[in-house]
Amino acid sequence: MRLQLPDGTTCDMSGEPTTVTTLLTGCNINPLEVIVTRNGRLIPEDATISGSDDIRVYLVAHGG
Amino acid sequence: MDTATGKRDCIPSCDSCDEPAVYFNPGLQRHLCERHLCLDVEHRVIESVTSHGMVHDGDLVAVGLSGGKDSSVLLSILCCIVPERWDAEIVAITVDEGIAGYREETIQSAVSLTQQLGIQHHIVTFQSLFGKTLDSLLGSYPLRACTACGILRKKAFSDAAREIAATSIATGHNLDDAAQSVLMNYLRGDFERLLRDSSSMEDRGFIRRIKPLHEVNEKEITLYSMINGITGHLPECPYATTAFRAEVRTLQAAIEYQHPGASHRIIQGQESLSEQAKKTVRPCGAVRYCATCGDPCSGPVCQACGLLAGLKK
User: Is the pLDDT of residue A14 over 60?
Assistant: First the structure.
């Protein structure tokens, strides 16, 4: 599983099934402050991700 | 079924249909797909606008359009819902504060959106109104950027709205913004602001301000914007990280995550306090007018003229 964080850094993770929430809180990210896509599609924070998923985390830009 | 991956069972379904959810609301324990999230957001905006009497027939609503996601979503939704319900006109006002490396992109986004929606767009600049950009103002005056910007931007919006005879100014303040403002006023011990009822300001000579997104949180607005392709990825204001609000935002998000619905309760508490205060606190004095610009204000000069006078010393 490939993870891309809001600052652009990427890391390869184990493909074991986990929830988006577990993944984010493990990175000290509040799920309310980000949007997550799996293979380019929006997913909710309680979705389960696994295998070779491409996960991208986008920061909710403040203001405006 | 996700045609790209064949994985469907790991994504919860929408509570209103069988489509995969894109959003989970922890407070309501509710999953929504793209379509139902957008319908839900629009429904809450319609509910806010109608139940609070924010728009009336004959209104000229000036939307404060920074070009960021909140104001862009606000303008898009108002352009969709207002003409169907009221005989009212919508225009957009953008204030260019002069923030290098940030404003260029957001203003371009605002211009594109108003062209796409086919509405009038007025752009005013700090440079033309106050003689300097925000960047240069801050270079000569050691003031917190967001404080100075907030005061001058409010003045710029009011002047521009008055110029076009707007009856109200709509801003993109959302649920999170409102909860943060309550917390900030508590933390500053600023009870005058905490208890202020902005709905009564119109009687005191100010143009009515409306906040149709006040029941929608920032994540929902971001998703709405992404799903409908309203704004792309835009930069964040370089001064935002220095603001007191940035600290409070992190705190509020943490509280909301641990205690879903807390932001609503913070706002409800403030509204109850404000209602109680009306019964016990003496009413505001007669409206005064700024000795420099003539705007309604609470002291001898308005905040903007006071700030600008300080810059000239």
Answer: yes
Which residue in the set A30, A45, A53 is minimally distant from B24, CB to CB? Answer: A45
> Residue B160 sits in a domain of what CATH number?
3.40.50.620
At B53-82, the pLDDT tens digits run 999 999 999 999 999 999 999 999 999 999
Are B139 and B74 contained in the same domain?
yes
Put simply, the answer to whether B23 touches A44 (Cβ < 8 Å) is: yes
Number of folded domains that form chain B: 3
pLDDT interval class at B288 (50, 70, 90): confident
Residue B196 contacts A, CB cutoff 8 Å: no
d(CA B168, CA B158): 10
Instruction: Tell me which residue of B72, B32, B29 sits closest to B172, measured CA to CA.
Output: B72
State ipTM. Answer: 0.94
Of B218, B199, B220, B217, the residue nearest B209 (C-alpha): B199
Domain range enclosing B20: 1-32
Write out chain B residues lying below 8 Å of A43, CB-based.
11, 20-22
- Under CATH, which number does the domain A2-59 receive? 3.10.20.30
Q: How far apart are CA B289 and CA B29, in angstroms?
A: 50
Confidence of residue A63 (pLDDT cuts 50, 70, 90): low
